Write a sequence for this structure.
């Protein structure tokens, strides 16, 4: 994590110098993730909040949703359920306003974890099922798409083989006609 953190801090320094605000928000979010994984919750929260502020200023709801999800998860980890829920509610509003499967997946998973942590297992199960159903649907759609691509390739290969076969038949027929013409021509000379 230390090398990654150093590289991101260097990138943040450059992005700050050139005023690349979206990249700065990404840098802050990534630093937050590093500190969250190191269990340095205080620093992680600071970085996530900086990223959240920049993304709100940019009206980038997709990234705002990611930041809210990260803050929800960190507060769940800290067992501060009231604060976690406030971020989850805000995340829910944004999730409903944008069309992003990944954001919905993150929301369902986080909400399931929240309900599980506060021992409301029926609600946890509802959101876990939504998460699994959506993830399975995406996986199935991907498989169907791959199958259809393979089917198209196989059909194209069959068509190519059919064309090759027809070309060979045409070549044989042309040869046969040429031979018949030659025989007719030769028999006309003999008589």
């Amino acid at each position: 994590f230390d090398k990654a953190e150093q590289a991101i801090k260097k990138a943040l320094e450059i992005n700050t110098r050139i005023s690349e605000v979206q990249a700065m928000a990404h840098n802050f979010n990534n630093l937050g993730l590093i500190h969250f994984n190191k269990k340095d919750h205080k620093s992680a929260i600071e970085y996530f909040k900086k990223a959240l502020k920049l993304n709100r200023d940019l009206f980038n709801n997709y990234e705002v949703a990611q930041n809210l999800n990260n803050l929800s998860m960190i507060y769940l980890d800290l067992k501060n359920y009231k604060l976690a829920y406030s971020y989850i509610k805000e995340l829910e509003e944004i999730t409903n306003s944008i069309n992003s499967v990944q954001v919905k997946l993150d929301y369902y998973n986080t909400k399931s974890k929240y309900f599980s942590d506060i021992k409301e297992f029926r609600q946890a199960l509802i959101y876990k099922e939504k998460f699994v159903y959506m993830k399975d649907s995406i996986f199935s759609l991907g498989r169907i798409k791959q199958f259809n691509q393979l089917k198209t390739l196989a059909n194209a290969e069959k068509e190519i083989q059919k064309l090759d076969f027809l070309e060979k038949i045409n070549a044989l027929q042309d040869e046969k006609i040429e031979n018949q013409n030659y025989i007719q021509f030769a028999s006309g000379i003999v008589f």
About this structure: Residues 121-190 form the longest helix (70 residues). The mean pLDDT is 87. Helices lie at 2-17, 21-37, 41-57, 61-77, 81-97, 101-117, 121-190.
